[in-house]
Fold this protein.
Amino acid sequence: MITVRKSEERGHADHGWLDSHHSFSFANYYDPKHMGFRSLRVINEDRVAPGQGFGSHPHRDMEILSYVLSGSLAHKDSMGHEEVLGPNEIQRMSAGTGIRHSEYNPSPTTPVHFFQIWIEPATFGTPSSYEQFKFDPAEKRDRMKLIASREGGNGIATINQDAKVYVSEITNGTPLDYALGENRHAWLHVIKGNIVVNGASLKTGDAAAVSNENRLQIAKSGIESEPAEILLFDLA
């Protein structure tokens, strides 16, 4: 079964310096029908103005992933990490027993466009930790690039949950075939472009909740020359 969540149905907040779309209930946006999906709790698509950002604030017991589409995102946290995240990188922060961090756009001229993702952890009260990995964009081109999983390793962020996170840039008409294991579920979010997944058409910002499907056939649709890009969450 595939249930489509349209882009325009997401929550939206425009604070001037921050333009944010919420796939699930977040901050002042509340929708009891969309509180998350399985262990996936937050998908926020954020655009932050030059020189602006989120001041230092706390988190605990949450797996937090950031994925930049354009621009750059500066990170500073109470564990002593000071990093800058750009496109084709994945940042993972396990809040665990508690952490404070800030995220801001260090550019004086260019906005940053990124996704922040929260996944509920399998266990609570674990030590806080941080990882950041860069990958070659060819690794996601017309294939599923694993960027986070419970096992981690080899440039894959380690998350405290039975979940896998993939990114893919689809440039041609050849479908991507993805096998879901028994009793697995998926959330597919279209970062950009038009795709068809198991017969359901999705456009930029749309998403699909998937249950009771053995395989996913994901293909770019339309005649556009620009590639499509997706995030896929394989969830228990």
Q: What stands out?
A: The domain at 2-235 is CATH 2.60.120.10 (Jelly Rolls). The longest strand covers residues 40-48. Residues 19 and 217 are 32 Å apart (CA to CA). The chain has a mean pLDDT of 96.
